[in-house]
Amino acid sequence: MPVGDNLGTYVSSPDNSMIFLIVGRMTSKSTAVYKFDPTSLQLTIPIICGFNNSFINRNEMHAVIDNIGKSYILGGTDYNKGPLPEVAIFIIILILITG
């Protein structure tokens, strides 16, 4: 992994040919999503129109994927929005189409 990631989430493609990592807290902000090919062991940054630019990194999010390749990224928290104990809570579902 080219960057450190903490509290991210991942989903496998419907046919298990790819694994998508949606990053949480990370050491670099180059992208919000990585694609891992378990056959070739290659980690790449997929081209996703608009997603990487609009995504706000968060902790403790969850993702699920349906059988046609739509990933639903749910919730999350952000402890960096203000002095403790203030926490931003994301009540949002993002959709990432991977199929």
Distinctive features:
mainly beta; three-stranded antiparallel β-sheet; 99 residues; 1 helix; globular; four-stranded antiparallel β-sheet; single chain; 11 strands
The chain-level structural class is mainly beta
Query: How much is the average pLDDT?
Result: 76
Radius of gyration: 14 Å
Question: What is the global morphology?
Answer: globular
The total of beta strands comes to: 11
Major sheet description: 4 strands, antiparallel
Low-confidence stretches: none
Number of domains: 1
Helix/strand order, N-terminal first? EEEEEEHEEEEE
Count of helical regions? 1
The proportion of residues in beta strands is 35-45%
Helix content: under 10%
Cα(first) to Cα(last) distance is 23 Å
Strand line-up of the largest beta sheet: 2-3-5-6
What this model shows, in words?
With 99 residues, the protein is mostly beta strands. The protein has one domain (5-97). It is built from one helix and eleven strands, in the order E-E-E-E-E-E-H-E-E-E-E-E. The strands form four sheets. A four-stranded antiparallel sheet has the order 2-3-5-6, with no helix packed on it. Strands 7-8-11 form a three-stranded antiparallel sheet, with no helix packed on it. The mean pLDDT is 76.
How would you summarize the topology of this molecule?
Elements: E1 5-6, E2 9-12, E3 19-22, E4 25-26, E5 33-37, E6 42-44, H1 51-54, E7 62-65, E8 70-74, E9 77-78, E10 88-89, E11 93-97
Antiparallel strand pairs: 1-4, 2-3, 3-5, 5-6, 7-8, 8-11, 9-10
